[in-house]
Design goal:
Layout: H1 28-36, E1 39-41, E2 51-53, H2 56-63, E3 68-69, H3 97-103, H4 111-116, H5 118-134, E4 139-140, H6 141-146, H7 148-158, H8 165-175, H9 182-205, H10 211-220, H11 226-256, H12 259-267, H13 271-285, E5 292-296, E6 300-302, E7 305-307, E8 312-315, H14 317-320, H15 355-372, E9 377-378, E10 400-402
Parallel strand pairs: 2-8
Antiparallel strand pairs: 1-2, 3-5, 4-10, 5-8, 6-7, 9-10
Helix pairs in contact: 5-7, 5-15, 7-11, 8-9, 8-11, 9-10, 9-11, 11-15, 12-15, 13-15
């Protein structure tokens, strides 16, 4: 096998810029790299040059390979920003510690438990639509609908007061912003940790039936440190609302930009078509656009190249989900496509714990919003919308709509 050493001038910066006027598509530089081969070098903020993996097959293979580590504290890990405070949650740990902590929060996210929540989520969606219809227009869909839906759901699941949503949403935005200073992100993480630690104290004193109370029970039993429990709460609260909110808004925008697809979705009462539309939108949009980051523990030969031990690896899942070898005409949104093999939730032992919940929420939203408001349309031109190029989760800061 061979190694690749690109001349410095040829190594592009990562993450890369999207093309003007193409807010739904991965950066053209990333597409060019995919066409050249499955792996190439990129340059990060700190000057390091990890591998970026652009093809689907190699991404899946590496995400399932025990020779790559998700541990952010390992030398060579391709961090997306300066790290303050070490590990942030079990998603940035390896087994067995990752598996030990993950098992403690798996039960509420099983398909059976999630499906039991569907009527409650339907009521949340309908109530928010009622409020929009009764209020002034245009309205910012992000603030009036896309953020409240998953925030209300995750607050109920965790046992977090929804009245505090402004606080945790603002600090979540700072924590995942690439443009915020390291000290600013560290301060936001500190505020969220202190907030969850305070809630953990309340659950220890008076436990309920929520997920945080379950973690408090493990603290009482000596299975978990209180600091670990609070850290897990931060991770679940952040992941439980930020990603789904952006999928709701950006998915709506993508459908409005593809009126034939929107009409087909609105006209169907087939739950399978709705579920398929969710998978296709997840594939097409792939809002976590910083890639899945890993570091090699051993030399790995893949795609005709050798990743050396200690080298960073970034699985660019946005372009992986646009691999024409797996998804023909990948740049076309097609809700009738079988897109279930996408890697929007990752793959392997670290794939997203909350994906059943995210899928169910999106199914309820996409099957309800456009029927209840059949004339829904954007109240601003696509090029005028403020897209989130500044964070690790892609979407829109606001989406004015009317009907």
């Amino acid at each position: 096998m061979t190694t690749m050493s690109d001349p410095v001038a040829e190594i592009p910066e990562f993450p890369m810029e999207r093309a003007a006027g193409c807010p739904f598509d991965p950066p053209p530089t990333l597409r060019a790299r995919q066409e050249e081969g499955p792996l190439s070098r990129v340059r990060l903020w700190d000057g390091s040059t990890p591998w970026v993996v652009t093809r689907y097959a190699e991404q899946r293979a590496l995400l399932a390979d025990p020779r790559v580590s998700a541990d952010i504290s390992r030398p060579g890990y391709p961090s997306s920003a300066p790290v303050h405070g070490g590990k942030i949650g079990f998603i940035l740990m390896d087994d067995p510690e990752h598996a030990r902590l993950r098992r403690m929060v798996t039960a509420p996210f099983t398909i059976k438990r999630v499906e039991a929540m569907r009527p409650a989520v339907q009521k949340i969606v309908d109530d928010l639509i009622d409020a929009m219809l009764a209020g002034p227009k245009p309205v910012d869909l992000m603030q009036a609908f896309a953020l409240p839906v998953p925030s209300l759901v995750i607050c109920e699941l965790l046992g977090v007061p929804y009245d505090d949503h402004d606080f945790f949403q603002e600090n979540s935005k700072r924590l995942i912003s690439r443009e915020a200073a390291p000290e600013e992100r560290a301060a936001a993480h500190g505020r969220l940790s202190a907030y969850l630690d305070g809630l953990m104290g309340e659950k220890l004193a008076a436990p309920g039936a929520d997920l945080l109370s379950g973690l408090a029970g493990r603290v009482t039993a000596g299975e978990l440190e209180r600091e670990e429990a609070a850290s897990m709460g931060v991770l679940l609260l952040l992941a439980g609302h930020e990603t789904t909110a952006n999928m709701i808004a950006l998915g709506t925008l993508a459908l409005l930009d593809n009126p034939g697809q929107l009409a087909a979705l609105r006209a169907s009462d087939d739950p399978k078509l709705v579920a398929g539309a969710v998978e296709e939108l997840l594939r097409y949009l792939n809002i976590t656009h910083n890639g899945r980051r890993r570091v090699a523990l051993e030399d790995i030969e893949i795609g005709g190249l050798t990743i050396r031990a200690g080298e960073g690896v970034i699985m660019a899942n946005d372009i992986g989900n646009r691999d024409p070898e797996v998804f023909p005409e990948p740049d076309r949104l097609d809700i009738h496509r079988d897109a279930r093999r996408h890697v929007a939730f990752g793959f392997g032992v670290h794939q997203c714990l909350g994906q059943p919940l995210a899928r169910m929420e999106l199914q309820v939203v996409y099957s309800t919003l456009y029927r209840r408001i059949p004339t829904l349309r954007a109240a601003a031109a696509l090029e005028e919308l403020p897209f989130k190029h500044d964070g690790s989760v892609y979407g829109v800061h606001e989406l004015p709509v009317t009907w």
